Amino acid sequence: MGRIAGKVVLITGVARGQGRAHAVRLAEEGADIVGVDVLEDIASNEYPLASRADLDETVRLVEKLGRRIAVRQADVRDRGTLAEAVAEAVAEQGGRLDAVIAQAGICPLGRPRGDGQAFLDAVSVDFNGVVNAVDVALPYLVDGGSIICTGSVAGLLSGKTDNPALGPGGIGYSLAKRTVASFVHDLSLVLAPRSIRVNAIHPTNCNTEMLNSDVMYRQFRPDLAHPTRDDALRAFPAMNAMPVGYVEPADIAAMALFLVSDESRYVTGMQMRVDAGAYVKNRPQRPAF
């Protein structure tokens, strides 16, 4: 307990899923939270996004742990609104940040070919939204702080979400997540003189509302007209080396805790894969000779 006592952490996409798991796990270890979420659906994204009730539940869970949480509604695609929301919430928490977790994301798979909006929405949320979150947080971030960006192991592998059969949203998702990896690599060098670490976490399938949706079931079981979760469960493990179909949000939050804590004070520019071996299974290392 208390590994990050007194730290203040900004989390985007905080209302549910991985964002909520981050907020609760960090609060368990003594952090106070600044959180934002869009709380509105995006038309090209066929599963519903978080609601006000979801955000209220995150607030309840953090406060139950005796920690403070300041939340605002904001769309990470809108830098101006996001900057205003973060400024207000950071002020409530004392005017500084020790870390930012740019984790808000969507995965608009299955849209028809030619749906440029699905492609653009994926890029705008999953990459532009990450840059916007880091941008608006940086003025408050202390020297020695931590920036964590959420990528995806699927975005690091060819033939996964970039498969044209999954639609333009999948191609946009892969582009965004690949670019997040590059962004983290280069930003870590830029901010190293301030001892600010910059790292990415790349999950495999994660047991959130994104994975547990009809649109995802159809992508995993295209052989069925109306696949259920039970049908999709048979296909979920295909990408992973370990015999699991998905990891839990708590598994991602455990990595985030390490990267927020001073235990990672010299860890920067890393692509931290919490992926049950998906990357090594699908991109095996060639022999040195």
From TrEMBL:
| UniProt cross-references to InterPro entries, sorted A to Z | NAD(P)-bd_dom_sf, SDR_fam, SDR_subfam_1
Q: Which UniProt keywords apply?
A: NAD, Oxidoreductase
Q: Which domain of life is it from?
A: Bacteria
CDD domains given for it?
Answer: SDR_c (cd05233)
MF terms in GO: oxidoreductase activity
Keyword Nucleotidyltransferase among UniProt keywords: no
A Pfam family of this chain: adh_short_C2
- UniProt key word Ligase: no
Family indicated by similarity: Belongs to the short-chain dehydrogenases/reductases (SDR) family.
NCBIfam families per record: SDR_subfam_1 (TIGR03971)
Its recorded name reads SDR family mycofactocin-dependent oxidoreductase
The source organism is Cryptosporangium aurantiacum
